[in-house]
Every structure is written in structure tokens, then in C-alpha cells.
Amino acid sequence: MSTEPVWIIDHDLEDQDIVQMIWKESGLTNQLVLMNDAEEAFQRLSAADKAPFIIICEVNLRGTSGFTLRRRLLDTHSKKFKSVPFIFWASHVTEEQITEAFELSAHGLFIKEGSFEELKNTFLTIIRYWLKSKMPSKTEKQSV
What is the pTM of this model? Predict the structure, then answer.
């Protein structure tokens, strides 16, 4: 089972609070890292020796969008970034946004449900799926 942190990138502080409540209720042991914007996430990923277990990113972030963050990560050609499941979520999306998410090789796009229980079920479904999945290493291999 993966022990890397789960990153949530979402400017909505209420959604962050809900995710923290779900996390505590569920008994998940990975560290939960909350960020408000794409630039912070990109800087932290760039500086990290090892990538997070999973990234769940709001599509409609203020400033730099979740799509732009995903594009930047893919453009680095870093295994560290490409081996991380990247999930988009939003309160609502257009058909064009759904298409764009999958053109960016997103590993999923989910709607933030209206009720706490629905959001909890969606969130835990995402996490549990990826906990069972096999993934490549999230560190860069150094040439000798």
C-alpha cells in the first residue's frame, strides 16, 4: 500500500474542510496535503524528491487553471510527475472541459456532489481505487 501523501488542490476552503472531515472519518493514514492554487502545487512538486500518491485538482482554480497545471506537469517529461494519478474534480463542468481533461491524459474527472455523503462516497471511491492499483515508481532514476 502506498504511503505517499495525497494532494488536494482546491481554492474552496469549505471543500478543503469537507475533505479533511472525510479523511479523519475514513481512517486513511497517508498524509493529506491541501493547496489553494496550481502555482504552489507546481513549485512543491518541482522541489520534491518523490511525487505524491495521487493529485486531486479542481478544474476551475483561480488564476492558473487545473488544466494548465496538468499541461505543465506533462511538459516536464519527468517520470516523477507522469506516474502520479491526476484526477480532476469540479462542482460543474462543460462537455468541452470533459474533453480537455481526457486530452490531458487525466485519470478521471468527477463532480463534487452536493451532499456530504455523496462527496464522501466519490472521494473514497477515488482513493480506494488507486490504493489497489499498481503504479510505477514516483522517483527519478539517476544515471550512473
Answer: 0.89
Q: Which domains does the chain have, with CATH numbers?
A: 6-132 (3.40.50.2300)
Crossing angle of helices 13-26/116-132, nearest 10°? 60
- Residue 142: pLDDT band with limits 50, 70, 90: very low
Secondary structure (H, E, C), 35-94: ECCHHHHHHHHHHCCECCCEEEEECCCCCCCHHHHHHHHHHCCCHHHHCCCEEEEECCCC
Q: What is the pLDDT of residue 141?
A: 53
Distance CA 89, CA 125 (A): 13
Dig out the grid coordinates for 71 from the structure. Answer: 499541461
Q: What is the pLDDT of residue 67?
A: 97
The residues near 61 (Cβ < 8 Å, ≥ 6 apart) are: 9, 10, 11, 37, 38, 69
What's the N-to-C CA distance of the chain in angstroms? 29
